[in-house]
Amino acid sequence: MRFFSFLILVLSAILYSAPVEKPGTYATPVDKNDFIDTSLNIIQFPKGDASFERLYQKLDTLVFENRGQVRILHIGGSHLQADVISGRIREHFVKEYPGASAGRGFVFPYSAAKTNTPSSYASKYKGIWTSSKNISKQVSLPLGVLGIAVSTNDPRAEIALYLNKYNPTPIWNESRIRLFGYSDSSDVVPVLRVDSMDVEGVLDTVSQSYLFIPPHPVDTINVVFRWTDTTYQATIAQMVTDSLIQDSIQRVQDSIAHVQDSLDALDPSKPKSSSSQAVSSSSAEIPAEVALPDASGLPLDSMFFGECDVLDTACVNQEEKRNSLNFQSGDSLKTDSLGTDSVPERPRPRFTLTGILTETDAPGISYSNVGINGARVPSYFEEICPNFEKELSFFKPDLVIFAIGINDANTDNFDGKVFAKNYDQLIARIKKVNPDVAMIFETNNDMYRKVRKRYVQHPAGETARQAFFKIAEKHKAGVWDKFSLMGGLGSMAQWEKANLAKKDKVHFNLAGYNLLGDLFFKAFLHAYQEHIARLPALEPVTATENTPAEPVSEENPEQPKDSTTTAPKF
Is 28 helix (H, G, I), strand (E, B) or coil? Predict the structure, then answer.
């Protein structure tokens, strides 16, 4: 008979194991929270799960034969940019089964865009950068699958991503790095720096991407930007640094003068005079506690929520205003404003970065999260993200988990039909990349909105839930009914009371996101277990030295005919 009994035992142990406080296990018990309906923690298939067969076959090959890769894309808004629920699901996939990681997938230097980096890795940057997001009223840069871009003409610009920053045991060791981006005039190129060695990338003009092959697998992605005219780059870099140092000195002098003036004003015996005249620029010294710009000063993001600790839409205007100011200040740094006439004014090379994809050749699962604070379904349309399919084609997901909808429903009059039509448009874009992609829709979590300083229930939850099921039925997809599972309308208040959600009653805290990630992974495993139970029983074949190689199936070249399964390595 077919040997899937071991896998069923493993899955059952995972599904019903007692909580253990360590990575990759279920740390948050559900029993004490009776408002959570765990009987609904399943993937529902309104039209059956036939569309999941190709995904299941790839998982079978990986589980039983340790061959191939399975790629998963999880796309949404702030829940996904924070990468806590998705990070938890990824953690289960790659930590509970050693060796199952097949590349970190899409990553981005969010800190350069002045927004929160996903909680699973760290990002730093040097130089002045401007940004554009798919939630802005005016998108200034062509965007890709990640819905965000950063741009710079600073000669000192660098970015760095630390993939294993928060992993006690390293997980990621990437053998290929693909950087999506472009230079306005082909006069600046990205360079991958590995062990103080510069690695050149191979430009693919069609996809506007650079492929880097490091000399050995890496978990740190450090990219510098080299101008064609390196002498001009070095000259401008020095001028910018000198200008910023002088600006720091001036600000220190102004602060000292302001303090002195305040002290003089409190002493009536002293004659009124400008104390700033007593501070000589030649004798001024910068106090030790004042940090100068540049050097090793790479701003590091906060853990995961950044400034968006309220309704997504409440953050959008603030971030957009700040990014507009950043854009203006970045473009105003021309050479003639640096206090010298020794270098003739000319346009500085500019590079725009829209994403980074990290990969390996190892068998396993690559799980990418895509999310922007405040994103709605139309945020990923072609007019906003024209490079979406082009970039996604390098990842080609086998499964897409859709978690977009909380911001779409945050209106006074939510229209489920318009919501469904918008999803049709986004799904069509993804199916251009992989027509056979499997899809799971997360219904929205329950939420509240603030009215006159009070939080009140938002009534759109059930309407949005019904819309998700209709979309799933049309596209023969699965549904994870998060709304009903967590308790339905008004349940977010109970999650907050149980210390699982934040005060805004829209976002969850770390424990809440981890719990949701645990629940989703259990639901997914249950769906896969159902598939395993349906597999036909086959007689075992005892391998010997004289046993000929098994023929390869014409229908599925990745799976031998009548192969005997062994203990899963997934």
Answer: coil
Cα–Cα nearest to 295, from 241, 371, 331, 218: 241
Q: Which amino acid is at 366?
A: S
CA neighbor of 351 nearest in space, from 125, 116, 75: 125
**DSSP character at residue 23:** T
**DSSP letter at 73?**
E
In this predicted structure, the answer to whether residue 9 has a pLDDT above a threshold of 70 is no
Q: Where are the alpha helices (DSSP H) in 85-193?
A: 85-95
Tokens 């988990």, located at residue:
401
pTM given for the model = 0.79
3-state secondary structure of 300: coil
| pLDDT greater than 90 at residue 297 | no
Structure tokens of 101? 């990681």
Whether 97 and 569 have beta carbons less than 8 Å apart is answered as yes
Q: What is the DSSP string of 414-475?
A: --HHHHHHHHHHHHHHHHHH-TT-EEEEEPPPP-EEEETTEEEE-THHHHHHHHHHHHHHHT
Q: State the number of CA atoms in the 13 A half-sphere of 374 facing the CB.
A: 21
pLDDT in tens, 525-539: 999 999 999 988 766
Question: What letter does residue 570 receive in the DSSP assignment?
Answer: -
Tokens of 398: 């086998």
* Alpha-carbon gap, residue 532 to 553, rounded angstroms: 19
Query: For residue 538, how many other CB atoms are within 10 A of its CB?
Result: 13
Collapsing DSSP to helix, strand or coil, 279 comes out as: coil
What gap in Å lies between CA 26 and CA 17, rounded to an integer? 8
3-state secondary structure 216-247: CCECEEEEEEEECCHHHHHHHHHHHHHHHHHH
Task: Compute φ and ψ for 563, nearest 5 degrees.
Answer: -75, 145
